[in-house]
């Protein structure tokens, strides 16, 4: 029996977008498999012909995929979407141009929030980086108006029931400011990724967020020399560190092509190949 994978996962690995974005493409009828319009839930094998908007998509083996990851310093006023119906600037406007691939953003920041955003050409990597189960810590610098009391601080550490469930900070660190509480800075960390979660947590305690800046994602910290509207490419060892943190434990060979390679190696009694190499510039 031919090994198969979910259609959106194969397309994401080809660098066409995030899984969520590609699921919408499938639902909108933009994707076909062997000439038939695809549906959500379809699985494909290595012999299937995939098309998006009528264009044949060449699906590469995992070891052939060039993975790029960049850090971008988002300024205020940019929206986290590829196209904005209101004509506002987007976070994609200043990114380097690609051929045959697309930048996929890892999470979002609201229009007024600044700071660190990650983009990658590997939609599957983006999906795993965003997935809550991988527990990547986000750190923010927050300027708050209003008086922070020990009770309010503890409430946000213990957990607050918001419209979409309980949210909490993992830590709240005093970062200086006016002693009376007006325009006081804090550094907060959390592992969630809900919509406007930091702002809503402070608002639940009648504290107004005047400025919000993401300064860290996992082990990646916003470089002080990276100015707003600029991007910086990750080094190969940094990309490999990210990949290592999101790979499934105990499954060195994953995916359609990984399993096929493993079967071939077993048949030929060859030792396993090393994990895919670093990004080649």
UniProtKB/TrEMBL annotation:
Responsible for synthesis of pseudouridine from uracil-2605 in 23S ribosomal RNA. Transmembrane segments: none annotated. Residues 5-65 form the RNA-binding S4 domain. It catalyses: uridine(2605) in 23S rRNA = pseudouridine(2605) in 23S rRNA. Signal peptide: none annotated. This is Pseudouridine synthase. Its EC number is 5.4.99.-. NCBIfam families: PRK10700.1, pseudouridine synthase. Belongs to the pseudouridine synthase RsuA family. It holds the Pfam family S4. It comes from Alcanivorax jadensis T9. SMART domains: S4. Keywords: Isomerase, RNA-binding.
């Amino acid at each position: 029996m031919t090994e198969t994978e979910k259609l959106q996962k194969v397309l994401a690995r080809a660098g066409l977008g995030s899984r969520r974005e590609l699921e919408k493409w499938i639902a909108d009828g933009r994707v076909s498999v062997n000439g038939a319009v695809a549906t959500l839930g379809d699985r494909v094998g290595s012999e299937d012909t995939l098309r998006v908007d009528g264009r044949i998509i060449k699906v590469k083996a995992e070891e052939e995929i060039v993975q790029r990851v960049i850090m971008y310093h988002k300024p205020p006023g940019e929206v986290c979407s590829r196209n904005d119906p209101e004509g506002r600037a987007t976070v994609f406007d200043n990114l380097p141009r690609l051929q045959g691939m697309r930048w996929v953003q890892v999470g979002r920041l609201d229009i007024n929030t600044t700071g660190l955003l990650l983009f990658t050409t590997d939609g599957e990597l983006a999906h795993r980086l965003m997935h809550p189960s991988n527990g990547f810590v986000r750190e923010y610098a927050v300027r708050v108006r209003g008086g922070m009391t020990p009770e309010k601080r503890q409430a946000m550490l213990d957990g607050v029931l918001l419209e979409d469930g309980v949210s909490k900070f993992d830590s709240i660190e005093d970062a200086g400011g006016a002693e009376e509480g007006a325009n006081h800075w804090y550094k907060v960390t959390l592992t969630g990724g809900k919509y406007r979660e930091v702002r809503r947590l402070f608002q639940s305690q009648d504290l107004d967020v005047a400025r919000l800046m993401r300064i860290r994602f996992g082990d990646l910290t916003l470089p002080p020399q990276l100015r707003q509207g600029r991007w910086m490419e990750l080094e190969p060892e940094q990309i490999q560190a990210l990949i290592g943190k999101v790979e499934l434990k105990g499954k060195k060979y994953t995916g359609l092509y990984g399993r096929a390679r493993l079967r071939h190696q077993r048949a030929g009694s060859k030792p396993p190949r090393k994990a895919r190499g670093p990004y080649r510039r």
